[in-house]
Design brief:
The protein has 246 residues and is an alpha+beta fold. 32% of the residues lie in helices and 30% in strands. It is globular and about 60 Å long.
Length: 246
């Protein structure tokens, strides 16, 4: 194909945008840019990567869709723990662990299961999923959340039962498999702990907990994760922000 052909040029620009987004994504997830810090400006990034500002802007838009950067405009919602916003990472569970707020995470289940009903309900192309169930505890052993995640069993995700999580993180394991949450829906209600879950969490049966269901998809709308969580309402809140922030 002629390199001057417009179709070829668009394909080359798309690959460059993906390359730039990938490099910035890796830097953010590695901690090179701390929460709340500013990325270099568009002009500086354009010079660094030898591309136009438009290409940089599209790469940044991709990171914004993954909730890796925040322009503080529009509408957003954040999970909070003891008043601390946990919405600056794709996984608030990871934010709890990295911050040191949660001292221990107990993995109750890590196996690949076949679930045709889940596949049909979320429009997944496959029926095999990693079933990962975890309890997060404070330093004194108090359980504050019970999470049941279901993720397409592809790539590195399918190896979790045998090799464990990448860096002890489901988020990192999903990224290694090319599963990048970009958007989704979450529903939160109040429920009472049944006997089985109360036993797992060393809580009283019937104790009220927040019941959250989150379905995440990638930038192309493909299913990447469903997680059903039970959250201690004494510690977790749902914080909604609105307006342009101007």
């Amino acid at each position: 194909m002629d390199k001057d052909d417009p179709i070829f040029a668009r394909g080359r620009a798309s690959l460059k945008r993906q390359e730039i987004a990938g490099e910035l994504r890796a830097a953010i997830l590695s901690g090179a840019y701390e929460n709340g810090s500013l990325l270099p400006g568009e002009n500086e990034l354009a010079q660094r990567f030898s591309v136009s500002r438009g290409t940089i802007r599209r790469a940044l838009d991709a990171l914004a869709e993954e909730d890796l950067i925040d322009t503080r405009t529009g509408i957003g919602s954040f999970v909070t723990f003891d008043g601390r916003e946990l919405g600056d990472t794709p996984s608030w569970g990871r934010a709890l662990t990295v911050s040191g707020t949660v001292n221990r995470t107990d993995i109750l289940r890590a196996e690949v299961v076949r679930d045709p009903d889940l596949a049909a309900s979320v429009g997944s192309g496959g029926m095999d999923f990693l079933a990962l169930d975890r309890i997060r505890r404070l330093e004194d052993g108090t359980a504050v959340s019970l999470e049941r995640s279901r993720v397409p069993a592809i790539g590195r995700v399918a190896d979790v039962p045998f090799e464990g999580l990448v860096d002890d993180s489901l988020t990192q394991t999903m990224l290694a498999a090319g599963l990048v949450p970009a958007r989704g829906d979450e529903w939160v209600a109040v429920t009472s702990l049944d006997d089985a879950d109360a036993t797992l969490m060393d809580r009283r049966p019937g104790e009220p907990f927040l019941h959250a269901v989150r379905i995440a998809r990638d930038a192309d709308g493909r299913f990447v994760e469903k997680v059903v969580s039970l959250l201690d309402p004494q510690r977790f809140r749902l914080h909604l922000t609105f307006g342009s922030g101007k």
